[in-house]
Amino acid sequence: MNDFILNTEDREFRAEVRAFLQRELAPRAAAIENNEDWTAVKAVVRALGDAGYLTLMFPDLYRGALKSPGLTHATILSEEAARINYAFETTIATALSCAYPLHRYAQPAVRDRYLAGIVEGAQVGAICVTEPTVGSDSAGMQTTIEFDEASDEWVINGLKRFISNASVADTYIVYGISNSAAAPQKGMSAVVVPDATPGISFPRTYTFMGRRGCIVGEVAFENCRVPADHLLGRRDEGFRIMLGMFNFERVILGGSGLGVARSAFEIACRHCQQRLSFGQMLGSKQQIWGRIADMSCRIDAAELLTYRAAKLYDAGGLTPKELMKPASMAKLASTETANFCADATVQILGGEGLTKQYGRAEQIFRDARALPIVGGTSEMVRYLIASVDLPDIKLNL
Ligand SMILES: Cc1cc2nc3c(=O)[nH]c(=O)nc-3n(C[C@H](O)[C@H](O)[C@H](O)COP(=O)(O)OP(=O)(O)OC[C@H]3O[C@@H](n4cnc5c(N)ncnc54)[C@H](O)[C@@H]3O)c2cc1C
Predict the structure, then answer these.
(1) What pLDDT digit, counting tens, does each position of 204-219 carry?
(2) The overall pTM is greater than 0.70
(3) Which of 218, 278, 295, 316 has its CA 20 to 30 A from that of 64?
(4) SS3 200
(5) Ligand 1: does its nearest atom lie under 6 Å from the Cβ of 76?
(6) DSSP strand pairing (125-128 vs 171-177)
């Protein structure tokens, strides 16, 4: 059955990227998961760049066949990649999140210098928001970005943690407080920091339960200096830039959740049509087909919400504030569905679901767990949704 939100061009694009990822990502997925092979990740990023898929968000840069490239197509790409390997998909999401503020807010010379490498897949970017004392409460960040009039430079001091691509990225987009006298929402700035800048270091790399092959760590800044023109947008405009980034990142994460959910669902469906239990197919048991029906329903609901948000974004005309609710709903529904489906699939597979010897169910279960935490936790996106539905009261965060 065809969905009715995606049009013919979108569906043809899905077929195209699915074939591309089968060719480029699928043969490397085991090396990424088992050996955390960064060269395999980089090779696929490069192939994506060569094919032009990392410019999908930017119609003025895109040179492919689509009449209206945009977030819908980027979300399809995210979904199809996550269906094969969610850890790899992180590099797509980060590349787009990094390219977006460069494309939209960097001064022309800075944009030319840093954007091309990322969208060509030759370089990798990182986004630095989270800190040891603030994650969800990003407005409370401690990192400072101060302007030094004498040298005409921005000076960055602080520690960021849980940063995807820390230590392997070429370009870091860093958020920090530039005016401590103002409310954080009005005193935050964003700057571009190349990896070789003196004062940047990478104290720690984390070991996660899932998403193997995706490098996540700390990034420290100690009197780290970048030229005045490395500011993104205007001084103290960082919070607004960050909110704009979150909207499209959450839709992309909706695609990731959907891809992870579908990969689990396919395994569950295959297993319960092959496995005999009490002399009959496992799938013929009411408790099993009930779970399949619930998974199927939740996947379709997540798909509708995700592509509704992507289409609203692409249609233009809505403010970032108006897009916040549909983007948050897409992220919440898809990432929670990914976990629901990953858990149900392990249960349907029984002991096989817990082992590496019987396929990817255990990997999907470990990978999926990050989805309701990254890019705004389920609790935070629920807050954003409800704050629109309950305009007359101030929700207690
Ligand atoms: C694999 C991975 C990759 C990441 N990549 C990046 C990256 O590239 N760049 C980056 O900047 N960050 C990144 N992050 C960080 C991520 O965005 C944060 O982990 C996330 O925002 C949550 O912050 P926290 O971990 O500090 O949890 P906290 O904010 O401490 O929250 C802990 C728990 O408390 C809940 N909670 C907090 N406040 C409230 C409240 N008021 N009401 C109800 N519940 C509440 C949260 O929802 C959560 O469940 C990454 C994280 C992971 C795990």
Answers:
(1) 999 999 999 999 999 9
(2) yes
(3) 316
(4) strand
(5) no
(6) parallel
